[in-house]
Amino acid sequence: MSLDSQITADPFVDKPATKRANNRATNQDAILRAARLVFAELGYGGTTVRDIIRRTDLATGTFYNYFDNKEQVFLALNTQIGEELRALLAQGRQQAKTFEELIANNYLTYFTYFANNPQNYALTRSNRGRDGANVNMEGPQVKAGLAEMQADIEQAMQLGRVSKMDAAMLTAAIGGVAFSILDDMMQRNPVQPKQAAEFATRLFMSGIST
Amino acid sequence: MSLDSQITADPFVDKPATKRANNRATNQDAILRAARLVFAELGYGGTTVRDIIRRTDLATGTFYNYFDNKEQVFLALNTQIGEELRALLAQGRQQAKTFEELIANNYLTYFTYFANNPQNYALTRSNRGRDGANVNMEGPQVKAGLAEMQADIEQAMQLGRVSKMDAAMLTAAIGGVAFSILDDMMQRNPVQPKQAAEFATRLFMSGIST
Amino acid sequence: MSLDSQITADPFVDKPATKRANNRATNQDAILRAARLVFAELGYGGTTVRDIIRRTDLATGTFYNYFDNKEQVFLALNTQIGEELRALLAQGRQQAKTFEELIANNYLTYFTYFANNPQNYALTRSNRGRDGANVNMEGPQVKAGLAEMQADIEQAMQLGRVSKMDAAMLTAAIGGVAFSILDDMMQRNPVQPKQAAEFATRLFMSGIST
Amino acid sequence: MSLDSQITADPFVDKPATKRANNRATNQDAILRAARLVFAELGYGGTTVRDIIRRTDLATGTFYNYFDNKEQVFLALNTQIGEELRALLAQGRQQAKTFEELIANNYLTYFTYFANNPQNYALTRSNRGRDGANVNMEGPQVKAGLAEMQADIEQAMQLGRVSKMDAAMLTAAIGGVAFSILDDMMQRNPVQPKQAAEFATRLFMSGIST
DNA sequence: CATGAATGAGTATTCATTCAT
DNA sequence: CATGAATGAATACTCATTCAT
Question: Residues of B from 7 to 36 whose C-beta is within 7 A of strand E: which are they?
Answer without folding.
Answer: 18-21
